[in-house]
UniProtKB/TrEMBL annotation:
<keyword id="KW-1133">Transmembrane helix</keyword>
<keyword id="KW-0812">Transmembrane</keyword>
<keyword id="KW-0472">Membrane</keyword>
<feature type="transmembrane region" description="Helical">
    <location>
        <begin position="6"/>
        <end position="24"/>
    </location>
</feature>
<protein>
    <submittedName>
        <fullName>Uncharacterized protein</fullName>
    </submittedName>
</protein>
Amino acid sequence: MFSMPGLPKILVLVAIIVVIWQAFKIIGRVQKARIAEAQARVREAKAQARNPRQTRTQAATSRTGVAETRECPVCGAYVAQGSGACGKPRCPFGS
């Protein structure tokens, strides 16, 4: 009536268990990443509330490391928005 399962059945069972285990590990990593991203957005919103002068461009720059640039009409160089003067006379970006 009862017999020992064959080796193929045991291997299939082990394979199913490993697949399910790996799926749970991947789901856990995705959840941790989503939580970390949500916490970063909350921190950014709190920082924005503390410093309302910071523009969205500056917030994006601090997050991505990329800045929007504009061409200086005096010297023709591209400068980041919010940066200081280029040192040329009549520079419109001077403080």
